[in-house]
Amino acid sequence: MPISQRDVRNRIASVKNIEKITRAMEMVAAARLRRAEQRIEALRPYASAIRRMTREAAQAAGLLTRLPILAEHDQVSSVGLLLVAGDRGLAGGFNSNIVRAGVAAGREHEGQGRSAVYFASGRRPASSLRFRGHEPAESFVGFTDRPAYADARRIAERLVAAYLDNEVDQVEVFYNGYISPIAQVVRHEILLPLQRASVFGEGEDESDEEPARAPFEYEPDPEKILERLIPDYVEVSIYRALLESTASEHGARMTAMRNATDNAGEIIEDLTLEMNRARQAEITQEIMEVVAGAEGLG
């Protein structure tokens, strides 16, 4: 049965409404992205400095301290995996990429005889983990659009407590690192123990041409400084992951909504062409009926 012009008009109107919504969501995401970029740029130098100071103090102390947080467990039998994503969807593969990476890492650990303990920041990774049969030990939700430092501190306290209470022997974090509005990359970092932490690796935000500095003389001793630095290191590392994830989410949503708006425009063009064809068919049919009637009267 051919589609009537009325049906096509209704479909065009529906798609136009969707196009308006996706265009509005793209504009909102773009505005939020600009603010998120500013917060990242403001934090990156501080985060880099905290990591560098922690690394240098730990090397000066030789990691042979009496601090419980620096006590490396005899063996890694349980690994805590923090998955940082968003509370909402409509952002392309932003959420699913993190869940896939985290679950794959969990399977890898389990294949090596370790157990995986999941933690989730965001409603989407929490619900996806439950759907896959991995109940999070704890989930943190309600702030992914604009995370505060207090949110990072709350997550850090839970992860540090899990490490100190031997609930986990290692803590890893997965998040979307922000590169540009159309490019985000899944990053995997080890937070604890400090001996294996990414703080001792080559930071992606540190300059290779940094001038050499004279050795520091610590007062008080490096162990006392580490006692104060390590909580800050964990909190700032998580806060940075939250900010990077937020910017990545807004960028991914902006791109997804732009693509949806473009697709809606193409659908409207196709439906308009279909409506014109239906109108031509109706006109042709009416002409044929008029001609047939005239011939019948003749």
Polypeptide structure, described:
With 298 residues, the chain is an alpha/beta fold. The protein folds into 2 domains: 56 residues, Orthogonal Bundle (Helix Hairpins); 220 residues, Pyruvate Kinase, Chain: A, domain 1 (3-Layer(aba) Sandwich). It has 5 helices and 5 strands. Strands 3-2-1-4-5 form a 5-stranded mixed sheet, sandwiched between helices. α1 runs antiparallel to α5 and α4 packs across α5. It is elongated, with a radius of gyration of 28 Å. About 3% of the residues have low confidence.
Set down the secondary structure blueprint.
Elements: H1 5-61, E1 78-84, H2 94-111, E2 115-121, H3 123-131, E3 138-140, H4 149-164, E4 170-180, E5 183-192, H5 222-297
Parallel strand pairs: 1-2, 1-4, 2-3
Antiparallel strand pairs: 4-5
Helix pairs in contact: 1-5, 2-3, 4-5
